[in-house]
Each structure stands twice: as C-alpha cells, then as structure tokens.
Amino acid sequence: MKRGSYWTGRGWLGYLLVFVYLLGSISHISASIHEYYNETFVTQSNALFFLGGSEGLYASKAHHSSAASASPDNSSPKGKSFIRFEDVIFVRTKESSDKQNAMQSKTGLVEAIIVEVKDRERVGGSFLKSDAICCTPELAKTETCKLGEVIIHKNPANPEWPKRIQTFFEGKNQEAKMVETVDINSTGMYYLYFMLCDPQLRGTIIQGKTVWRNPEGYLPGKMVPMMTFYGVVSLAYLILGILWFVRFGRYWKDIIQLHYHITAVIALGMCEAALWYFEYTNLNGTGSRPMGITLWAVTITSVKKTVSRLLLLVVSMGYGMVKPTLGGVTSRVFLLGLVEHLGNINDFSGKTKIYLVLPVVFLDTCFILWIFSSLSKTLEKLQVRRSMAKLELYRKFTNSLAIFVLLSIAWIGYELYFNASDPLSELWQIAWIIPAFWSLLAFFLLVVICVLWAPSSNPTRYAYAGDTGDDADEEAISLTSTVKVAGSPDHGTVLGEDLEEDKRD
User: Which of 4, 71, 203, 449 has a C-alpha 20 to 30 A away from that of 107?
Assistant: First the structure.
C-alpha cells in the first residue's frame, strides 16, 4: 500500500510540474500594442527595414485636425482611431556615431512608413520599374524621389498616404526618438515599416512601442467581432444551461451517470464563453491582457474541449446504455484525454507550440477513428440484441454526427482556401468567422446530445439495465426492476455472457 501511495504522489507531482511549465510557456499578447525590445533591421533590396506591426483598423468616427494629430499628448476620445508612437527610440552603433560631425544637426535618417495594404505597390520603385526601395542617384535625377529617402508614390485620391514619418540622429548622438500620433480616417489593413537608407546606420536597433487603437477601443480590428460573438455565445450557453438544469431537477431521481458528464460540459462551456468575453472586454478597454483571466480562459477552453471529446467517445462506446462501465479501456480513455488537454492549449509560445502540433494532429485522428469505431460496434450490438428504442436513438446520433463531420471537412477546406487566398489579411473584417464556426459547431453538437439524452421519467429509454432483446423487456424493467425473459431457456445464459463481455470491453 505504501508503494502505491508513493507512486501516486509522484504522478501528481509530475503532472503539476508539467502543468506549471506549460503555463509558463503561454505567450503574452498586449492587444494592439506592439512592443520592441532591441529589435534589429534586416536587409531588403537597398534598404534596411523592420516590420513594426500590422492591424486592421476602422476609420475614426470623430475627425480631428492635423495639428491635433501631430501632438503626442493627444487624448484618446471614444470614436478616434490612430497609431501612436510612444517613446520609440533608435540606437545606432558607436562606430557609426563617431564618424559624424558633432556640429551637424542631421547625421542619420530613420523613416516610419505607414501604408494601407491596397497601396503597398506605392512604396518602393515598382512604379518606376525599379527594384530599389531607397532613392538612388539615378532615380533622384528624374526628380521622382529624394536621395537617401524611401521611394513613395503618393495616392492621388489621398495625397498624405502612404504616410511618411521622419526622425534624425543629431551630431554624434547614438539615440534618436520618434514621438507621433497618426489618425486613421479610412478603414483598412495597415502595415508599419521602419526603414533606413543610410548604409552607415547598419546595426541600429529599435526600442519602445506603438499603440494601435480602433474607434471603440484597443482590440485589434479582426478581433472586434469576437467580443460580441462571445457575448452572444455566453447567453446561448446560459439559456441551454437553464433548460437543462430545469429538466435535470425535475427528473433528478432518474438521472444516470451520463447526465452528469453532459452537465459538466455545459458548465465548462458557460465558463469558457464568459471568460473570453471578459478577456476581450478588458483587452479592448485597457490595451493589455490580464494574465490571470487569460490563463483561466485558456485552461478552461482546453479542459472543455477535452471533456467534450471524451463525452463524444464514451457516448459512442455506449457507456451507461450498452455497457455499465468502460471496463479495461478506462485508463486509455483518460490518458488520451490528458494528453489531448495539453495539446488543446493553443496560446503556447513558438517552440512549445511546434513540439505539440504533430502529436495533437495524431491524437485528433485517434479520437475520430476511435469514436466512429466505437459507434459502429455499439450500433451492431444494439441491432443484434434488437433493442429498438436505443438503436433508434443511436441512429439519430450517428446521422447528426455524420452531418457535423461533413460540415467540419467542408469548413477545413474553406479555411485552407481562405488562408491561401489572403496572405496579407486583406479580408480581416470577416476573418473572425473562422474560429467562430468551430465554437458554434461544438455548441450545436452539445445541443443535439442534450436533446437526445435529455433526462426523462423513463430512464430505461437509454439507461443500461442488462438489455434483454426487445422493447417489451425494457418496459418491464421500469415496472418491476427485474428481467423476465420469455422464450429460450438458454437466453439467461446468453445475457450473462453479454454482461461479462460489456464489463470487459
């Protein structure tokens, strides 16, 4: 006994350590706030550039003057959309600064280029049939650009865009600071690039942050609909929960074990939707994710996905209807569920996420194959026993599950097409439907299970009670709590063998 207790303690300790490690691997994201920690520039054509971020932004509902826009201390009233540079600092190498004249006011240029994705061809020399990004002496002679600056072909419909913001190093100073606020008056996907055209600035690093704000808050444009979506889903789970608990309370004397599993999934669904709604609301209001709510939301989502899949699996195996227990496969079911739980946490940082991708794909495949294999065996067993009421129930469940699988396959195809046809996120305003679909699919599948396995005054409609072969016997069970079988005298022996088989499965 001591040996068993010792290993049980070690098992829980090991699981706790793994859980703490995985939580530590969860990445921290701060809404539309892009922070730069000593980031370096990379070479592209004849320029050095750094991608400062990209976001879908809605147009400001309240327009402000250009003078107000240029003020770094500008307030953030509701209805205003902007990109704000907060203490963005560029640090060049000491070797580069030592080469400069201390008396010169401008000894190095850094440019920030903000461009809407539809105008991306206006940055660089493509319109001049040149691969250059920075203006060359040959191009400068044509007076289409200024030597040492990024080539920009202004939009005739909006001469201020693409937007160019410049800051200079002074004398021998190693640091240059950029403080600016740019109003957004047109809805679109915006990209921010920091660019250097001076080869002497090679090795320059960038620090600080930029804040991207939409009219209603700091939530990224593509995530704005998700806040409303999770609010609606929270309400839907609440209504489902109320209906289920009312029926649960009404027939509480006839509740079977499976009903508790369904109740757990509904409760987890309510918690998941509510946590994500509060997560997005806080993110929208403050611009940063509260680590506590984020950890709870990610963990509850993972647990809910795992428990939902386990529910599908045990229902397909006929638990509580065809067999009283899961028998020898119980440990395998929970082990697969535990590993699936770890894989379902999708907010991991880069390396951890890479390590889990292939195992999760393999586990998902195992789950699907196991579910349909178990469902096939359950249907076959019910058909052999001629348990018509349960067979009809499982046929409805099988048909519903088949429809959901077909929808899933079709949506995966659409998702692949969507991602392949929109590499620059130009369709950001409808991108929210991709994750939303999976949440809705899971919800409606849960509704189907709740309808099919709803608590009732006749629990033998789906409860395991040693199936005897026909509907008349099922009715007899509910009246006498004993099994009376008319027919062959060997039938009781066959029933006993079935019971033993069910327990072994």
Answer: 71
Write out pLDDT tens, residues 206-231: 999 999 999 988 988 888 999 999 99
Q: In terms of residues, how long is the chain?
A: 505
Report the SS3 class of residue 420. helix
The 10s digit of each residue's pLDDT in 2-41 is 444 333 344 434 443 334 444 444 444 445 789 999 999 9
The number of beta carbons lying within 10 Å of the beta carbon of residue 93 is 15
State the pairing for strand pair 109-116/188-196: antiparallel
Work out whether strand 205-213 and strand 109-116 pair parallel, antiparallel, or are unpaired: unpaired
Answer whether the bond into residue 359 is a cis peptide, omega within 30°.
Answer: no
Nearest-CA neighbor of 55 among 494, 426, 497, 348?
Answer: 426
Do the beta carbons of residue 122 and residue 193 sit within 8 Å? no
Dihedral angle sign, alpha carbons of residues 492, 495, 497, 503: negative
Cα–chain center distance at 385: 44
Strands 175-183, 188-196: pairing kind? unpaired
Q: How far is CA 387 from CA 313, 392, 424, 448, in A?
A: 21, 9, 56, 21
Contacts of 170 (CB under 8 A, 6+ apart): 104, 105, 106, 107, 176
**Among candidate residues 183, 193, 178, the one with its CA nearest the CA of residue 87:** 178
415-466 pLDDT, tens digit each: 989 988 888 888 999 999 999 999 999 999 999 999 988 887 765 555 555 5
